[in-house]
Amino acid sequence: MNLEQASRQLEALGNPTRLQIYRTLVRAGHAGLPVGGLQERIGIAASTLSHHLKRLVDTGLVTQERHATTLICRAHYPAMDALIGYLADECCADAACVASEAAAS
């Protein structure tokens, strides 16, 4: 994961509707949800849902798979794990520097 990719994914999740869609798919687990079921749970128009799903798919956070006439949407867990890992990777890395600076003051 790099800064640009993390930025695009966070920007996509920064929209309340997309965040709601994504959280709904995360809650659904690996089975995912058909678009119609997702639309019912979120309660938005099909065209609006399609627009938001495209953004989530384009950033790699959501995958879609067609089964006959049904389009199944799933949270792409490896992408979610990579984003969370990127955010937490260097947690407290500079804490020793901050502690040293505080002690020097």
UniProtKB/TrEMBL annotation:
Gene3D superfamilies associated with the record: Winged helix-like DNA-binding domain superfamily/Winged helix DNA-binding domain (1.10.10.10)
Keywords: DNA-binding, Transcription, Transcription regulation
Keyword DNA-binding: yes
A GO molecular-function annotation: DNA binding
Pfam family of the protein (one): HTH_20
SUPFAM superfamilies for this protein: Winged helix' DNA-binding domain
Domain of life: Bacteria
InterPro entries: ArsR-like_HTH, HTH_ArsR_DNA-bd_dom, Metal_resp_trans_reg, WH-like_DNA-bd_sf, WH_DNA-bd_sf
Listed PROSITE patterns: HTH_ARSR_2 (PS50987)
UniProt domain HTH arsR-type: residue ranges: 1-95
PANTHER family according to UniProt: ARSENICAL RESISTANCE OPERON REPRESSOR ARSR-RELATED
NCBIfam families: HTH_metalloreg
Name of the protein: Transcriptional regulator, ArsR family
